[in-house]
């Protein structure tokens, strides 16, 4: 089973722009870029439909985060750090206490159950 090809936004824009220019047919572009002509036509249509939004909308401002949200996030980070430390210490204590309690020698691994 073959995997679908994923095309980058840059390639789609480049091919769509060439299709809009109409210097080459969709079939010629398809051969040039090894892409199905239907995809090229779709990219061209999408580019034309969304072209007005490029000029119409202003750049969105970065979202602002209040001081309260920052404090809440720091508290959550501290909570997760404490939990992680607890689990790490518990795992270390468990591995040290059970280091010699394996039913088989550590250099051999578990017994082969298939024999």
TrEMBL record:
Coiled coil regions in record: none
Top-level taxon of the source organism: Bacteria
Gene3D superfamilies: Winged helix-like DNA-binding domain superfamily/Winged helix DNA-binding domain
Disordered: region residues: 92-115
Protein's name in the database: Transposase
């Amino acid at each position: 089973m073959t995997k679908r090809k994923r095309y980058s936004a840059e390639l789609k824009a480049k091919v769509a722009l060439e299709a809009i220019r109409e210097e080459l047919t969709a079939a010629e572009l398809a051969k040039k870029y090894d892409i199905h002509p239907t995809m090229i036509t779709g990219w061209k249509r999408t580019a034309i439909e969304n072209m007005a939004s490029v000029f119409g909308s202003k750049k969105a401002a970065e979202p602002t985060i209040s001081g309260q949200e920052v404090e809440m996030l720091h508290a959550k980070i501290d909570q997760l750090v404490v939990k992680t430390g607890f689990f790490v210490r518990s795992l270390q204590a468990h591995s040290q206490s059970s280091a010699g309690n394996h039913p088989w020698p550590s250099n051999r691994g578990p017994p082969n159950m298939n024999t």
